[in-house]
Structure formats: C-alpha cells, structure tokens
Amino acid sequence: MELTNFILRHPTYGDLPCRVPFSMYQTLYSFGKIPDPYDGENEPLLTPLSEEDWDFICDFTVSPKELAQEYQVLRFEGIDTIADIYVNGLEVGYACNMHRIFEFDVKEALKEGENQLLIHFHSPVAYINDLQHRHFAWGHSCTMDGFSQIRKANYSFGWDWGPKLPDCGIYRPVTLLCYNTDRLSNVFLRQQHKKTKSGTDVTISCQAETLHGAGNLTMTLKVTAPDGQVFETQLNSKGKGAVTVENARLWWPHGYGDQPLYKVQVLLESGEDVLDTYTSRLGLRTLTVSNGPDTWGREFCFTVNSVKIFAMGASYVPEDNLIPRMNTERSRRLLEDCVAANFNSVRIWGGGFYCSNEFYDICDELGILLWQDFMVACCNVRLSKDFKENIMAECRDQIRRIRDHACIGIISGNNEMEEAVIGWDECKDSARDKLDYLELYEHLMPDLCDVECPDIFYWPSSPSSGGGFDDPQDENRGDAHYWGAWHGSIPFESYRRHYFRFCSEFGFEAFPSVKTIRSFAREEDMNPFGAVMENHQKCLSGNNKIISYLSDKYLYPYDFTSLVYASQLLQLDAIRYGVEHFRRFRGRCMGAIYWQLNDSWPVCSWSSIDYFGRWKALHYGAKRFFAPVLLSAHEEGTKVVFNVSNETMRVFKGTLTYRILDSDFNVYEAGSAPVNVDALTSLDITQKEFAASIKGYARDRFLAYELQDEDGSILVSSSLLFEKPRRFHLQDPRVKAVVTEQEIHQSSAVCSKNQTCKADTVTYTINVQAEKYASHVEIDFEHYDLVLSDNYFDLTDAAEKTLTAVWRGPADQAPTAEELNSGMTIRTVYNIGR
Questions:
Q1: Cα–Cα distance between 695 and 709 in angstroms, integer?
Q2: Percent of the chain with pLDDT over 70
C-alpha cells in the first residue's frame, strides 16, 4: 500500500493537504502562504522557516487481510531528513539521513481500520547548529555553517550557484508492506563476457538473498532479450545461478553504438505463489576506467567493451531546490538535451542527492555514461561511531539500488576533499580530518564497493591522482579540476598550457536568458550590481568577473540584454577553448566534463541549460565542440594549425577548406587539404601561415574554415579572428531570418510512470542570410521557447543557411510561423556595443 495523501499541520498555517512528493516550502507556496522563494529577494526572507519543526500527517486504512499478514513494514525511500515517525501515537522509528532507505516494523502499532502516520520533522538548521557547537566541521564558505554535520543534500544549505532553502519532506514513495513468509532483500547480478568467433557470449550470474531466510522457497532467474527470447534457470538453495546469452547485443555509450537492454527478473516462489519479484534492466557491456602507465604518466579513461572512450559532457546538479518540482519528464528532457548536444557522459556531482531510478533508466536508454559521486562535496566529515554507521548504510543502500545500470561508469568518494584537506587554507592542517578522510574514502568506501559492486571502478575523490594525498591535481595522472580561467581570473586561453589526462571540472559563468531573468526580476532590477541580480548570483564577485573578462574581449554592452548576450558568448568561448584543446590531444587527454549542465533555480551560473530548460550559447556550442568529428583551428599569431578529432568507430575522410575574407566576403586567400583520420584518433591536418594576407589588415580580415565529408556535406563551418572582437572592424551584417514552414510530426514522449506515449512535435524551418560577415548570430523569440538546430553561429558568406526549430510545448499551443516572425530577435557581436 502506497501512502500518498498527507496534511501539513502547523499552528500558524493550519492544515494544508499535500501529496508525495511534498516539502514544507513547496506546500506553503502552493497554498499562497509564502511568496515565491525564487522571486526577487524572497529567498533570504524565507530561509528562517527552516529553523522550525514541521509535522506531516497521513490517515490510512488497514484491512483485516493486511493486518493478518506475518509482517507489516513501513518503508521510506526518501525522507528529508531528521524525523520522528509515529503510527497511532506510538513511536516506530527515527530517520536521520536523506540518502538512506528506511524500514520500520509497525506490526505492534497498526490496528484494523483507520490509522494515522505522523512524521515530525526536526529543523535541519537547529540540528546542524547543535552539532557544530559541539565539534566544528569545515564546509564550503557559500553555505550555512555546519552543513557537513547532517546527511542531507549539501546544496540545500546554499552553494555558489544555489539558494539557502534547507527544506524538509518526503521526496520518494512511502509504502506499507504487508506480507507473509519472506521477501527478496538483495539481488546481486554480474556479467562475464567471452569473445567467440561469431560475437560475444555473456553469462549473467545471480546471487539472491531473502530478508528472513525462510526455507522451502524457490528462486528463478529469468532474462528476456530485446527480441523477446527468454533465458531462464532456477537458483540453487544458496540463491545462486546463471544463464548465458549467446551472441549478445552489447550496450554502448551514445555515439559508439546501440543501447539494447535485457530485462532481468528474479522470482521468489512458494509452490505456485509468487511472494516477491525483483526486476531490473541490464545493458550487456564491460566498463571500467583504464589508469595504467603510459608515455605521459598514467592514463585515465572510460573503457567500454575494450574501446577507450573520450568522455564528453557536463556535471549535473539537482534540478530544483524544491525537490517536489522535479519529475521524470523534466529529467528526460534535460538528458535528451545532453544527447542532442553530443554528450556521452554526465557527472553526478556529490553535493546533491542520488538520482531517481527513472533518471538512471533514461541514461541507460540514451547511452549516457555516469560519473557518480558519493554525496559529499567540499566539507569535512567527522567519523563518530554513529555518523560512520549512518553514512556507510547510505552507501550500501545506494550502491545496491544503482549498480545494475549500464550507465554507471565510475563511483567517486567525494568532490574536491582530497585536494581541500591538504591544499585549501581554510580546511587543511588538521590531523583528525586527514585520518577521517583516509578511513572513509580510502578504506571504508572502497572496501564496501569491493563487496557490493566489484565491477564498478572506484575513485577516492575528484580530483585525484589515485589517493593518499599524492598531488591530487597532478596533470599527468588521474582527473583534474581547473579553475584558473574563472576563479583565478586568468585568460581562458590558458587552457592551452595544460595537458590534463581527464578534466572533470572547469567552467565559466554566464547570465541566463533574459526571459528567465524576468521570472525573478522586474525591468528596474536588471542591473548586474543591483540587489535582485546579486541575490541571483551566488559566486563571490561573479558579476564583477564577467564584466572583467568582457572588457578584455568585447565592447561595453549598450544595454542589459546585450550584456546577457555577451556573457553567454564569453562562456561559450571559454569552454570551447578548453574542449578543443583537450580533444586535439586525444590519447593524452580522455575526458572533458565542464561545470555545469543545469541549474536548481533561476540564477547566473556556470550552467549551459538554465532553470527553465533554455539553452544558453554554451549548450549550442557544446553541440559543435562535442561533435563526433570536430575540426578546430589553433592560432599562434598568424599561424593556424587545423586539427580533426575523430571520435567515431570508423575512418573519417573528407576535405578541409579555408579562406581569408573581409566583412564584404571578398576573398584574399583560399586553400584546401584532404582529411583522412583513423577512428578514435586526433590528427593535425595542416598548418598555414596567413601573415601575407593579414599583415596590416588584422582588424579587417578573418579566417573562415569548413570541414566536408566524402559526400560534400558540411560538418563544421566556423571563423577565427586575428584580433580581439572589440578591436575588429565589424560592420552591420544586416542578418535576415524568416520562419517559412511549420510541420507536425508524431513522436514518442514520456508519460507518467515512465511509460511511453505518442505526442505531436511541431517543427519549423528558418532561413537565415547576412549581407556581411556575422559573428555569433543569435536567433530568439520574444514570447516562445524553441530549440534550434544551430544557434550562435557565424555567417561567413552570403549563402542562405537553413535551420530547423522545435517547439517543445503542447502541439495545440504551438505558435504559427507568422507569430514567430513577428516576435523574432536577431543579435550578433556587432550589436553588443551599438
């Protein structure tokens, strides 16, 4: 029985009905008891609500049949966070960890007929304050002091991109389990791959355990292939058994192959009665991280089915600070936007909470490799006996929940704590902290992983060179976080001085869409140094940094919307510099995971997709610099090296063309070169010295370059300036764009309970043309949100460019082509200072 209907009961606010998932802030807001926490400067005014205790009540009915069962258990899959649990006035349990699954025996508390569940949530702020006064534990300076004292999502206490709104509530199902005899408690599946002449045979082995160890029961392992073929065996008396899938269809990350999934079931039976069923989906693959010695030190790369993968993606943070607003549809759209931008990887950052089952399912389906942090970020953990037992129970619960997923590529102990303990002035030099660090991340966690998920690669921290406080930022080993080009205020061209083996965090901030800013700010608030804008900028001096970087690159914006546009171009340029450099050295570097993918509220941040799902310039840029075949141009003065990175499983053949032009499209030099690049390699195609064509004209002439495949299709088209844009003599490009067609296509969409249904997708055709050179053309619509096939692109000739745009709302609410044309805005770099 799932318990879904609750009441928030409070002396000030009365009784407010709510349904799972619910939280204190969301319930109060939905009934108009508080203003929108995300609007204006409301957040700091509402933070004190987290200093109170809150009661939630659920009335439910228990039938005679349910009461007669041998066992009655109350199961919480996600309770946030410190709570006393009462059934009919009898205390049945205590919850103390948002990340754990709790089960409480309620047999003695239940009665036939009407029953009442009361959950008394203690203030998380009062809880951490009490413990922080007893023994100090360091945590990130942008958060509430003491947040590391509680096993609750770190970001809820604030971050340098998030608000201080530590909530309480139920964010995953609450279930009353009534059953006889026994149920499954732990099902452990493993794969063994064997190459054959005709393909790969995969043996799926199973170790199943029951909670009560009842005898005279049978367990059956059943595997159903994507084509419906069934492989089945009965497990032995110890719960062990295996089936072999011959000529198995292998699972691959996005861009390298398909993602077939096999349905696995374990049935617990007593005679003809099925007592319990465990169901999972497996992608059959081998997956580890290769970190053996090589020419430059030790490599660090995902290896799938013996193929070394260049990881491309971004770090994920929870999609909302008010967790009940999160849902499967929203996550699916975000992850599909990752695939649309050619991601093959996402890092689940350790300051949030473990994602839903549906989130991991979607990653399996889409082929997105996951770097999964355990949930500790930028804070010291004090290992008291109780805290140690609590966090290790959490880790065990979560490993068992997610380990079957094909997408899980690595499990990391924490975010940035190895580096912090020895290198951050506010954190280092505590012998106790070092000892606790080593015990938790280099003994307890890896030992647990060896038992619970031995086939998943464990890494002690991010960044790390392998542990033991051995130079965690060593460029020649492990993964690295690079922040010189933001926090260090160093020009982002500095990426080219570094040769990381795997850059798992690097980023640059930008303002979100003006439409997003209007959700929390009035027109009079739209000043980067005004109170409202600064409340939605949580990075210390973040807006100052944007202006500082902008002053070096672009003209001073003449209005706020131009500032927003320019900030997004800076962000795109910065990350592009890094990724193109990393991909040019494929083999030495094998990963580029930028910070960050998304936002938890409307804010100025490092995200490439803002809170409302609107793509910033960076996400359109990612679609280009994460493309399977990438052409990049590395300039040194007037010399340019052209490189092609081929992240496909086949040889790429094509043609590079280049031209030196002026803004009127007059050509002063042109050339081409054949391209032949082996699979999964990067190659410098040619280098050219353009001094003769540029001398005396660096502010008037630019380089345009393209990559065509063997069929003549243009894969890459871009341009390069030999001067900073603020000094280049840009002319008004007079860009014209017209929406010419509207088409409705039927496609699949996710519905409730992760079921697939049919939905109409509305697409449009847009024709774009410029009279003169146009840099970073932005096309947007004042009243509508669409995702374009390309945006923030360059027009380097007078030819017409054809785009498609997708409306992602209900088809019956889609705008007409005429409505889009009337509300279209076009902006280029020329417009920034004019």
A1: 32
A2: 98
